[in-house]
Amino acid sequence: MIKIYTLGGYEEVGKNMTAVEYDGEVVIVDMGIRLDRVLIHEDVEFQKMSSKELRKLGAIPDDRPIRDKKVVAIALSHVHLDHIGAIGKLAPHYPDVPIYGTPYTIRLAKSEIKGEEYFEVTNPLYETNYGEIVQVSENLAIEFVQITHSIPQSSIVVIHTPEGAVVYACDYKFDNNHPYGERPDYKRLKELGKEGVKVLIPESTRVAEETKTPSEAVAKMLLEDFFLYEGMEADGLIATTFASHIARLQELIEIANKMGRQAIFIGRSLAKYTGIAKQLGLIKMKGSRVLRSPNAVSKVLKEVSQARENYLLIVTGHQGEPGAILTRMANGELYDIGKRDTVVFSAGVIPNPLNIAQRYALETKLRMRGVRMIKNLHVSGHASREDHRYLIRMLNPEYIVPAHGEFRMLTHYAELAEEEGYMISRDVFISRNGHVVEIP
Ligand SMILES: [Zn+2]
Questions:
Q1: Within 10 Å of residue 311's Cβ, how many Cβ atoms?
Q2: What is the pLDDT of residue 40?
Q3: Separation of 17 CA from ligand 1 center, angstroms?
Q4: What is the pLDDT of residue 295?
């Protein structure tokens, strides 16, 4: 019998963690963090805290239901923090159990583990390529299927069991025109559908949107439509987006090159994500600069403020996060941001109350300084309702357990599944954090 332990991400957008058990053996997929639960406590130092303290804050999943089980592998779907951010805290509960993921995922997971100060992490990490099937026990094997999302080398994780496949699709979108060639592996997904999918565990963050999520090519065009026309006459230009959104950063570098400006990346997380992307040949940094040390930042920003028209600054802080570069600029630090500057938000507002409040404060401060803002030159990395419908039709799963979403998102997913012939409590199961779904 297959059991699905829904440990995190079943009541929220964040801290994803699911465990699949077959015949006493367990594969864990993802160990995420819920950052807003950390950020509301200003004195919290995440790296130095124990898993127990963080669990009490609701910042990381409560893995006690599987703590004594025979865990044979940990698989990471992609390297967003809400999928891997708790790895330093939770992997030590399963000492020496191997961790698998695509190369970009594993290399960044390693840097996450390096920053861990409370535990020592001894798990071996293995880089796995798409299409490889890794036998993790006599009965169980895992596979990473290529998919598109908003970070490189994202995967749909498949756990092969003697009763059929368990397919974990958190997070994904179907991008058929990705500007840098990433593609969903429809062929493999359809094959899996033919071979027999026992359980589908899909994300549900945007299932209420009755559409298909647009391609990253649309975001590229939105950016070009401003920067390469009106932007050519602008003075100071500052763009902000997700530090891990490598495709978006590549678009901004290309735009800066076309404009005859130098792209300058400022912010620690931008340096981290672009650094590893560059090692793996996933981004071409030609014509750009990355500032790491605080000294370099203040020196270069002084030069920039003397000749703003020569640069495109790419900074952290699109959600108004405390300590991020744009937030500090809005507070009057680092750079005299003002009337001569335009800030382009290539990101939406992450819809949780803390983010909304921080972003509101940021925008108000920028407006008070006379900064012009262009918001929402962005497309989502998450599947909408019609993408989800297509995935169900390709995989034709026997059972569905919607994941990664607040309660209302999970129920929206269940409603979609009913349209596709499933029925809640019969073959679609809404679960909560800490519960287990026993597949009949
Ligand atoms: Zn994600």
A1: 22
A2: 64
A3: 13
A4: 94
Distance CA 412, CA 78 (A): 24
Enter the tokens of residue 231.
């932007």
C-alpha 107 to ligand 1 mean position (Å): 16
| Ion ligand 1 contact residues with beta carbon within 5 A | 80, 171
pLDDT for 44 equals 63
- By three-state DSSP, how is residue 235 classified? coil
Rounded distance from Cα 81 to ligand 1 centre (Å):
8
Q: Separation of 171 CA from ligand 1 center, angstroms? A: 5
Element containing residue 265 per DSSP (H, E) = strand 262-266
Pair 100, 110: CB distance under 8 Å: no
CA of residue 332 to ligand 1 center, whole Å: 32
pTM over 0.90: yes
pLDDT per 10-residue tile (average), the chain, 440 residues: 98 96 98 82 74 92 97 97 95 97 97 89 97 97 98 98 98 97 97 98 97 98 98 98 97 98 95 96 97 94 97 96 94 96 94 88 98 97 98 98 97 98 98 97
Which residue type sits at 370?
Answer: G
Euclidean distance between CA atoms 54 and 93, whole angstroms? 14
Q: Which amino acid is at 244?
A: S
Ligand 1 centroid, distance to 154 Cα (angstroms): 8
- pLDDT of res. 117: 87
Tell how far the Cα of 428 is from the centroid of ligand 1, in angstroms: 23
Residue among 84, 80, 82 at smallest CA distance from 100: 84
Report the first-to-last Cα separation within the chain, whole angstroms.
7
**Separation of CA 78 and ligand 1 centre (Å):** 7
Separation of CA 231 and ligand 1 centre (Å)? 30
- Give distance in angstroms: CA of 82 to centre of ligand 1: 7
* Cross-sheet strand order for the sheet of 372-374: 288-291, 262-266, 311-315, 236-240, 341-345, 372-374
Single-letter code of the amino acid located at 285 = M
CA dihedral 102, 108, 113, 117 (to 10 degrees): -170
Question: Closest Cα partner for 31 from 100, 107, 118, 96?
Answer: 100
183 alpha-carbon distance from chain centroid: 17
